[in-house]
Amino acid sequence: MERWEGKVAIVTGASVGIGPAVMKALAEKGMKVVGLARLTHRIQDLSNNVSNPSGQIYALKCDITKEDDILKSFKWISEKVGPVHVLINNAGLSRSTSLMDGSTKEWRRVFDVNVMALCICTREAVKTMKRCNIAGHIIHMNSITGHRVPNLPEPSLNVYPASKFAVTALTESLRQELRFVKSKIKVTSISPGLVRAEFQDGLPDDETKEVLEEIPALKPEDVAEAIIYVLSTGPNVQVINPQEPRSLFCREERTKQTRLKRERKSEIWDQTRRNGAYSLADQ
């Protein structure tokens, strides 16, 4: 974490749930942490509890469902605090509604927070990192529901898993784009299970909530610790779950490419032999 000391981190959804724990953990490592939230007084209170004198916490009022708010926030941060090195897309939202007769407004808000805001914040962070030649790190706070939809006593997750599946796909899509342009920016998706956080107050019905209370759950500090671990990995380290289908796809794709390359070389060899030339040095 030494390389991040004195550098700027942005945390969305900073005032509730996992957000405060993440901000404090980063500040304790000496980072300048800017929390984007609508309820800034909670962040201001948190800044008084940082023991590391190098760490600083800033509270910035921002409604991340409004693109103009996000753009103004990133501009203010660049001018007043410094260029962003780390972005934590932590903001998350769920609503207790239904796919069969739910509110379109509620569905749209979930996607505005969980997907669109994440995309806009990521875009602005990448712009700054590229402009300032920063080998930064972008972390998406995902969920296990972004990989599998759990079977609850009474289905109540509606569009939430779909929004998190989108985060899973967006992480890989961004990784491929960054790799294509040979960028040194890293992107990570962290998918915790159940976390005891205020965010869940709007999630389940009473019966499901009662069941969830009996399930062992993570604390926000546990997730913050995972973020610190990810940020502590070297610039060239890529953490991948070997059980993910993507890993299998990559192996199959590499095998396919190797086979095609061999077939192509065989074709070239046959052609050059027929023409009386046998050099394959540049193939």
Automatic annotation (TrEMBL):
GO molecular function, one term: oxidoreductase activity, acting on the CH-OH group of donors, NAD or NADP as acceptor
Keyword Oxidoreductase annotated: yes
Keyword hit for DNA damage: no
Pfam family, one: adh_short
Keywords, sorted A to Z: Oxidoreductase
Family named by the database record: Belongs to the short-chain dehydrogenases/reductases (SDR) family.
Name of the protein in question: Dehydrogenase/reductase SDR family member 11
Provenance organism: Tenebrio molitor (Yellow mealworm beetle)
